Amino acid sequence: MIVHFTILAxxxxxxxxxxxxxxxxxxxxxxxxxIVFIYWAIRYDYGLDYWNYYDTFYxxxxxxxxxxxEIWFYRIMRIFKHYYQWIIASSALIVITLYHLxxxxxxxxxxxxxxxLLFIVPDFHFNLISAQRSTMxxxxxxxxxxxxxxxxxxxxxxxxxxxxxxxFHTSALVFIIVPFFDLIIPKLSGRTIFIILVLSNVASLFSxxxxxxxxxxxxxxxxxxxxxxxxxxxxxxxxxxxxxxxxIPCWFICDNYKRGNKVYDAAFTLALLYLIPDFLHxxxxxxxxxxxxxxxxxxxxxxLEQSNRQIRWFIxxxxxxxxxxxxxxxxxxxxSKINFEYSSGNMxxxxxxxxxxxxx
Length: 360
Hints:
The chain is mainly α. Helix 1 runs antiparallel to helix 7 and helix 2 runs antiparallel to helix 6.
């Protein structure tokens, strides 16, 4: 944990250097992502599924038994001779994908905020390096979102990429609905969207388990994940009330977001696809945070860039407070081993392959 927050502090210092001192886009951003790459690439026993994937890497997997959502993940894994090589390569792919989106869509002034959220939103950072199959599927989908939805709408290519991503993790199939959402969301007013988010937050008190169960059963290929029923329940009253803190910045985002730019309209739609399931508490153990959270950050930074100083504070303070509260509980659960009985690694103590008793 100390290493994690030390690296975060370094990244914040770098990205808060005044623009007149050094070109952030040309020098600071590549350096920052290189630091993140090293942090992820040389990790050892760091990641909740680290040893599960280690066992998978060196075991004989019957690919017919692997399931639709695992076939290509295992095949690509086997390209590498050693597990640590796979960790390095997969870390590189994640970093390249995120770098591409950040440099393209996030204003330079807000690079620091991206790295802050990357490191303090547990479902984002920890799932990126723990849930390796869904992360690889996310990398494919993030390129699909950018190339065949945000830049230009080529739905046939987009759907083809969704099916490729689903061969890494079946949860990617849900994003077949993006073309339908793209028809609906741009027609809704900011106030209507905000009301939907409020209702989703309130509904999470009594409907999360029901919704989650029906989503999983609708997709028979999710049957391997029935154990999530044991750890996903209706949202607590405290958790639901904390959701209202997030609704404060969401109001300003919905009210101040400037429509009419097709690039950011598409990012706004993808951000809502993250927010609605998150408020409903049906985020599939953070899988959809991995897929979509970057677009919420893009929209957040865009709105901050367009807003005056007072509105920026109204957006940032409640949101960062809620995230910090969630981070505290995440580490508390890690130490208490609550909801992590299926994990095979740790997210608390950082180790490198140079400390390892053997090269994995």
